[in-house]
Amino acid sequence: MRTIEHFIVNNPGGAAARTGDVFDPNTGRVQARVLLGTQADLDRAVAAAQAAQPAWAATNPQRRARVMFRFKELVESNMEALAHTLSSEHGKVIADAKGDIQRGLEVIEFACGIPHALKGEYTQGAGPGIDVYSMRQPLGIGAGITPFNFPAMIPMWMFGVAIACGNAFILKPSERDPSVPVRLAELMLEAGAPDGILQVVHGDKEMVDAILDHPAISAVSFVGSSDIAHYVYRRGVDAGKRVQAMGGAKNHGIVMPDADLDQVVADLSGAAFGSAGERCMALPVVVPVGEKTADALREKLLPAIQSLRVGISTDNDSHYGPVVNAAHKQRVENWIQTGIDEGAELVVDGRGFQLQGHEQGFFIGPSLFDRVTPNMQSYKEEIFGPVLQIVRAPDFETAVRLPSEHQYGNGVAIFTRNGHAAREFAARVNVGMVGINVPIPVPVAYHSFGGWKRSAFGDINQHGMEGIRFWTKTKTVTQRWPDGSVDLPRGSEDGGPSRIQDAFVIPTMG
């Protein structure tokens, strides 16, 4: 059986005392085993990163940008193979897998502009003969701990900006679908990054703790559940690191009475059920304002949900595929039962779904709840599966209050034709990312991504200029040059070029 090894300079294997199973979610069978690393494995990766990083930091930004351009080309030329590998381990359909990769590449495109993004500030004449300027310098070694649901996008969100800024990077991807992150590291090396600049270590909590405690790692970026995000943030900060830890979500979609319900239903079909709901920016709660709106929305939702096609990840006609493993399938089904026990109305039950010929696959049909209330635990917590909940709101004020008072504050959307209502909602809602008639408001790569409340721990968001700030430290220089003549050499006795002439030769920057 295939073994997925670490991607560490000169020694990928390690002791291999422990391994984890990597499943094919379509069949339920184990398709590979991944090494679960130790402190010793991390130490080897850190040593290689320390050896490589100073020269990489000294490489001018244009040359680092050229590596990013080449990496982008290589990922694009390998898109088909990467998408199939991703789907085979995660379960998302090929179209979603390609979207996963493409959204990561958009951050790589942003990182290609690193010469401009790293420009500092300058003030001439801040005082008598005094100038002040700032520069952004890399931190040294950064690390990323990434989740199973976006095995291409989120690693590229992290390492693309970190490496472009001049850091070395150690990636600890999810052990559930680790093959694509390793392949991305191989492509980065092929693109021209030095050995040791991007490495991959596999593991579970033992490796996570080793990363958080290692004194040579300066910053850690994390995406996962909120409880673990909080743990990562506290332990990393206690160890003196810069930490950004993105957690869970329970994103709401507010539907005003004037909304285009046909468009809302089309948007919800993808936002709530796409990728089997395994997205922190999914839209699992819809809040129609007024009973008339709620009844009309429910009526339109039913046929749309019933027409969703659940299939294997390579079926181009499937809207979504299986969830990642058996444990996660059971977790989602348990939440459905909890909703029933709490008194919510289960309108569509996705439990017990089986796909002919793939009966052991980790499939769940779409589920719809109505008359969910804010006091229900199934509303308070993240289900992370193909489950949509309707929470009816009597008025606009309630619709603003529901997402604002929820423990999570990642994303929210409002559907309306009323510009004033949309503007008021966007200004008042206590959530980090807002969509106006946009169901999944993930910002473009040159803006930043980050939620509020228990959806994010730390002060700096991911990618965009926030990412540049996270992966660099600012140095500010205040300078004054004294007045007085300087005796400059005029030229050599043999008629060769003088030293002052040499000083005006423009060096090659490329």
TrEMBL record:
EC top class, as a word: oxidoreductase
E.C. number: 1.2.1.27
Transmembrane segments annotated in the record for this chain: none
GO biological process: L-valine catabolic process; thymine catabolic process
UniProt key word Oxidoreductase: yes
Sequence segments annotated as region (Disordered): 482-501
Keyword field: NAD, Oxidoreductase
Family matches, as CDD domains: ALDH_F6_MMSDH
Gene3D superfamilies, alphabetized: Aldehyde Dehydrogenase, Chain A, domain 1, Aldehyde Dehydrogenase, Chain A, domain 2
GO MF term set: methylmalonate-semialdehyde dehydrogenase (acylating, NAD) activity
Protein name: methylmalonate-semialdehyde dehydrogenase (CoA acylating)
